[in-house]
Structures are given as C-alpha cells and as structure tokens.
Predict the 3D structure of the following.
Amino acid sequence: MDDNKRIKILGTGYYLPELLDGYFDGQNASLDLQVIPDDLIPNMLINKHADIVIADDYYLRHYGSQGLEKVLLFQEQLLLNIPSDHRLFFREWIPLNEIQGEPLLYIETKADIDSWIKEILKINRCKLNIGLRLDPLLFQQMRKEIQYSYLVSSSTHLFNDNQQDPKAWKKIRVNALYSNRYIYLWYYKKDFKRLAKVIDLVKNNAVKAAADFEYSRTLA
C-alpha cells in the first residue's frame, strides 16, 4: 500500500490493542504502531513523524504547534502489585516514599511504564530498592515464581494479568507527584478527514475501556 495512505500511531503505553479493538474487522488503512518513551513523543509529533500520538501532556504542553488538536481518552494511575503475604497487603494506597526501601521487582521495558516511573522518581527525588530486574520476556517466563512486589500501570495489561492466583495479589494506588495522569489522542486538525475513522474508533473504545483503565476512580 502507498505509504502516504498508511497511518502511523505512536503511544507511550501498551494500551493500543484495546483502543484499536475492531479496527481490523473491515477494509481500513494500513497501520504502523509503536510504543516509545514519553520524552521522544514531542519530536515525533511536531516534526510530523507520526499521524496520531496517544500520550499525556507532560512533555507536549511545553511545545506550541499551530493546528494541533487533542482529545481526552482516559486517566492512568500508578499502582503497586503486592502478594497476599506482604505486610502492606491491607493498604488501599501508599505514598511513593514509603516504598523506597522495599525490595521490588523492576520490569525494564525501555518505554511504557518504564519511562513514566523514571520521571516520577526524578521529580519526587526517590530511589527504588531493586531486588530483581527483568526484561518483559523473562518476566513472562518467571512470573509464577515471583514474590516481589512491582509497579504497574492501571491502563496496561501487559504485566497486570497475573498467572498466579489473582486472590493472592492486590494492586494498591501509589500517591506521588505525576503518579496519576490524563492520556490524550493528539493529531493535526488538517489531517482529521483522513484520520477520522481511527480517531472515532479510539474514542469509542476508550469509553468502553475506562472502567479498567481508570483504576483510581474505584479508590477515590
């Protein structure tokens, strides 16, 4: 297919499968999908290396670009996934600074929640005690044996769906600067006609997925 007819979508998290649910049922434009670190998003969008970006405004708010539009999709919350025998299991939320000394598993993705966590730690001046560091593939292979607590996002199911007994694990909200954020769909107004079908689908799917994505609302 002509590259000019392809639609390139970049996201900061692994929520694109839910947001694009149903897209491939019909005859639609070909897509290029990629998850990249948050701080690379502005350059990709401002320099027209992407047609659509799904990200928060943490970096993009500093960039003025005429004709850039955004649509609110959902709210994302940082969570701590803990085993049932953990001393914090009874908690519903926890300040970030309380887990600084806690031995944690850290999943190194180079994007998605990884880059978000690193920015949260930076602005809150916190350090994590990493007891075990894994890449995503090793995590999938070893997750049944893991008893370390680990940080997850409310909107990304890549690491949330435990193969362990779900009753043996619990997610609690982490409170800190930037531990809760709004995710938007960004595009250029002049491209709306070409992108309308994708934009409408993403908006509708975001409404359907909000109950899962916006975990923080159930804890308010």
In short: The first strand starts at residue 7 and ends at 11.
